[in-house]
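Q: Structure tokens for this one, please.
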Amino acid sequence: MPDQTYFQGYRETGKFGNRKMERKRKIWIRGLAWAASLALALPALPQGQQQPAGQTPTIKAEVSLVNLFATVRDKNKRVVTDLKEQDFKVFEDGHEEKISFFSKEMSLPITLGLLLDTSGSEQYMLGAIQDAGARFLHRVLKKGDEAMIISFDTDVDLLADFTDDRTILDRAINKARINSPAGGYIAGNPGPVGNSNIVGTALYDAIYLACAEKLNGEAGRKAIIIVTDAEDTGSKTRLEEAIEAAQRTDTVIHVLFVADRANFGGGRPDVAHKLTDETGGRMIVVNSEKKLEEAFDQISEELRSQYTLGYYPTNTAKDGKFRKIKVDTDNKDYKVLARKGYYAPRARG
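A: Here is the predicted structure, written as tokens:
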């Protein structure tokens, strides 16, 4: 885990903390649909046994249902939307698990984080990124969805906290400004959510903060879309820690890989691949404004064409260890995008 004192300035700014109380009710409401879907997966009461009068059914904390969001594409990269439960197989640490819950998710609320790389290497594409990003949010966000906007360079700036207001999101995206180690703080941004002494591009810190500090309290489907060349030169957080933060919060990471090869080199496609592969997302290479628009369209389609699978793991040990997951279909021409694992709960006391 990264040194938490490093993020103290972020917490003290109140840029996210001042909305926690007002958002408690919203988080609860947004979690109702998710809780209802989980309830379907729970075993029914034994025959003849009834819920005590006046007592509301509850989902107990001991329930260890592991939830997976999966997208399936065929060999032509088209999204497959007509699969059934029996078409899937789920393995944990090599052992096949019994699927206890299955659905096609088209309406479950989505909580999104749009992370924009505003380091110097993106200066020639930022305008196009802002335009395409705004259009993407207008297309993908439906009733019940929320999004936040974060930019990262030498600082990590929370430009807009979770909201469903398109106007606020548009303004936030348009606030993003190119910054670099030599440029210092950019006036007009709401302020750093990391540490103002970062030197270089803080991609991993941005991911960690988005997941561990923002998405950790959210219910339902969660995803981060990052527009970047994946070059990190200033984070205190390591790549593995950023990925772990996403895995612990069930957050899928998608990367639109935008690299200015002529002026800044080829970026780090290996990093982009690792971020997406480990969390169940996609890495799409973008080399033009047209490709950028198409990439956002592909991500939008995937977010609205997912399957949800749930299972109770055979391994019931509460040891806090990482468990590897593999999701397959019977059709070998299909490719399944799903997270590669999860961290088991740790026994209390």
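A few notes: The chain has two domains: 7-23+107-303, 66-104+314-343. The first strand starts at residue 66 and ends at 73.
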